[in-house]
Write a structure and sequence with these properties.
alpha/beta; OB fold (Dihydrolipoamide Acetyltransferase, E2P); Rossmann fold; 4 domains; 5-stranded mixed β-barrel; 10 helices
Length: about 375
Amino acid sequence: MKVEAIEYGDRRVYTVSAFNRGVASWLERLPTVWVEGEICDLRRQERWQTVFFTLKDAGDGSLLAALMPRGQFDALRLELRNGERVHVYGRPELYEPRGELRLRALAVERFGLGEHLAALERLKETLAAEGLFAAERKRRLPRFPRRVGLVTGNDAAAKRDVITAVQARFPPARIVVAETLVQGPRAAGALCEALRAICAAPDVDVVVLARGGGSFEDLLPFSDERVVRAVAACPVPVVSAVGHEQDTPLCDLAADVRASTPTAAARLVVPDLGELVASLERSRAGLERGVRRSLERHRERLRTAGARLAGASSLAVERRRAQLERTAGRLRALSPRATLDRGYAIVRSADGLVRSAAALAAGDQVDVELAEGSFSATVDAVRP
């Protein structure tokens, strides 16, 4: 479409649309070129037909928007990440609706790690050698924290996500928030101060360090050595919820637990009240069943013991009765009465029982006891 100006007297005026169209037409005549830069703000979605990214000049920070068809980008199989240095072959173009200059990429080649990424790798190796990322340093999160500390940005969506999720899961939870800068050159120092302040607050048992998604540069403060060491030195467990799941700033490695999102961090630091109530109900029901079973066992033992006691007393009485009968039989057998029943008699004199005829003399008076009755007699004669 031809670019035409509007005549205002001796003045030729172009509309914005015509101007952009003219510039775009002129840019199309430029040759394809190679451009070197660090990839940042890489955006690739399955629903999008185009992959968008930005090339950054490591020297002065200049930026150039770039795009590439998703199928062509995926076919490269480079697995590119933010911070990598690349060479991009493409043609400059103007996005007419917004008047934005961008590079339509035709090919991408990995040139090497960007300065930031290389520096981060060196720092990561140093801190790992010091043991800051060691698994044995990781602490378990308290199950019922008295207070949850939250370090996040001012009016950040991450703050809202954490608070909403914590209150939804466990309404009695107490949260203390430390708002601070989370991106930019002053963010690292501010994050360290916020961490120290939140840990000094009374009754704080766990700290959540939260920030939503962002570009590679936006998340750099969370890989700053000062922040990483502050996280490792925190006196209470720290949950790092920075960026999206694919982002891994160094503070994630130093934290006791890494959460993929701020909402996931909230699920880690407080229990679910509904689940707790249900668990308590199950425990109560289990205790009730256990008590009932125990009472039933003791009741059965008492019934058995009672039956045994009742049987034991009857048996003991029977045994005693038999023993008494045996004793009575022996007594009857040894009793003088038994002797009398067999036809014998008991003779008594004035001196007592007469056991020998020599103890009597003619004329003595004696009493004779028989089995039935007794009588008195006078001794007529004594025979040896």
